């Protein structure tokens, strides 16, 4: 288990977070959820429970709602699934396969309906919905052309999935030929395995000496994603159809009508799907399905609600990763008790020290678990980051009888402890203040829930994990140089790879030593040559991928692309980061002061005064004007902000890290990104909406602008190209006028985009 997967619990309520704590918490959540997505969608080996994952995404969204300026460029709110696995051909989805937002309480369902009504500008009580069981399986897309199944693809990362056509053809529930179907029809649904078939499969596995599957979802996913279709044919897979993607002609005018049409075409659709006229009916149907859950014969983890009218679905559109017109109402999780046998500390790529509970194996909901997250040192002590009690102040100690909380996967969390069963010799756990790998001091900054190793490049755990990230699929993706090979080369005494630049000098160094790679066990002349060729091919790399590969904290894939698109040239980014450093330090100092003052702030006026003080710290005479301008240029980039800006300037200012980056850059040809397209009047422009929009909601206006290629920002700056101002525009309109930025009203905006 990685450090990301171990940190699945926060101890401070969102409403109690300071801005600094919120920034640190969003960083932690981004790491944990990215690792969880890769394990669940990419490896069919989930390492945190569904309930934990949902809770973390919900917490992330709540923090972003309270501190919108802190939303990260690599926010989990903008992530879907994981990249397609190696070994399969890749299929690009014509229409993206997105995930669903989640509801956990009845009020969440009511809020969902209210938000839809608000977006559409109509009474939510007049909107009808469908409700259907949420199957716990693997998403699959089936493309039919002229009635014939021509390809099948997994969801992958939502844009590109794995080509599993040969495997899909072996599933009895999937028709190979359709009659009276649209010329192009992409059917989407869930591959699953029934409980009876799952038990039979595990019996066969045991008879053959194979490893049993943990649960039906893993069995179904692993069976569908076999490179040998005959193995899939031998597995009892089933398929429920519930959606569609690319279509040559519409299936129906409503969701329910389209589902009925799919059934008429020969697909299995869920008989519990129901049309509901109110949120009360939705919740009643949820309760009914929940009561039937144990007897269904297959796993479900909630109920999905969708707007029935397809025209309204089209108007509502999509957020970055989820449709506005659908939500999943999830079921509660499960509990068990077992013994806490040990607490291990793991160190990750960013240096985070993560405690992991080692448990006496226990079966929870049909799955045997032996590891759990302990999140951070405060959680172990029974405290939040402010020192307030959680679990009534009960700490966790080795030997304790602890409550395990999970919802269908392998790595759960610890929820409680039974003090009546605590051993007499159980001692409070002392969290290490030194890194267990390199013995460097492990410090915990103010407002941070996590302790970090300060060893940096000298810490083997961090160095190895950074190198693994560097060669990962979304980064340099060097064929033949994966995690296993990185570990080998890192520990090699003759041809070590200790930093990214060492990869690109490997062939030269190989030729200078008698212990040539081709003479090593497991290598030969051809395999060594293939590796050198693969490395050489990646010597030319897109700017965004190169920046993401560096593994700079908070600079995820999206942030790296945004930075590359803004600066276009590496030298411009480096120069800006260098010039912005004094302003970044001033911002951090003022930000810390604000956190201290915030607790004493009693009125909005007082808080405004604090913000004014912080802003002055950036612009007063202590910070050079060119530094302030560079800082503003950096953090004004849509989707970047101060969190990424601080992390980037920190990395470039660290002598060891900067030297390693410079050595790498000298080894590469960095390809600048393509400039934004000019297919619409606002493509590539930064647009700000302010004031009240009367003919469409703010959300609909923003979604429209982004569809047309614009970047939508929340504040006016020198980088703003256009301000759309409705009544009550206020300070943003004044600032736009002062900066000479073009300003139009809502009618002007509608006229500008008319016909597009």
Structural account:
The chain has 756 residues and is an alpha+beta fold. It has 27 helices and 24 strands. The protein has a five-stranded mixed β-sheet. A five-stranded antiparallel β-sheet has the order 14-13-12-15-16. The chain has a four-stranded antiparallel β-sheet with strand order 5-4-7-8. Helix 20 crosses helix 22.
**CATH architectural arrangement of the largest domain:** 2-Layer Sandwich
Annotated CATH topology of the largest domain: D-amino Acid Aminotransferase, Chain A, domain 1
> Which strand order spans the largest sheet, edge to edge or round the barrel?
2-11-10-3-9
Sheet/helix structural class = alpha+beta
Core attributes:
5-stranded mixed beta sheet; single chain; D-amino Acid Aminotransferase, Chain A, domain 1; alpha+beta; OB fold (Dihydrolipoamide Acetyltransferase, E2P); 756 residues
